[in-house]
Please model this.
Amino acid sequence: MSAEDGSVTLQFGDGEHTFRIAFGQWRELLESINKPRQEMGLEPIGPMGLLKAMLNGDAWPNDVREVIRLGLIGGGMKSDRALVLVKRYVEGRPYFTNISEARVILQTAMLGPPEDPAGKKSTPEADPAPEMKSASAPSTASALQ
Model:
């Protein structure tokens, strides 16, 4: 379903598509969703605020549209093709039809794949080499942290 780079493959519209929100898409996404909020005198929201809105069903229709559009582009689709799919399968359908897909795209981009346990490293480099470990007691500063 997803990869370590924050991408996810989902059934959407006319078939399976890969979605990813990389650094460039994050910047464009936040600018796009916050512009109308700021024009209305509202506070801008960040990634966590957007995710909370998606989870609560309070995301704006444009938020859902932009997550899907930019996710398609970040997943490797050309922007003109992504726009065609979004017009057809997001703008042409009821609002709640796509909110679950947008939430999954956003969660995976923020948190990584769901099967990757948080805080666990899957590579052998996760544990320092034995020669790097100190046999002495931790310092007071590190013990307080």
In short: Strands lie at 8-12, 15-19. Confidence is low (pLDDT under 50) at residues 122-145. The chain is about 50% helix and 5% strand.
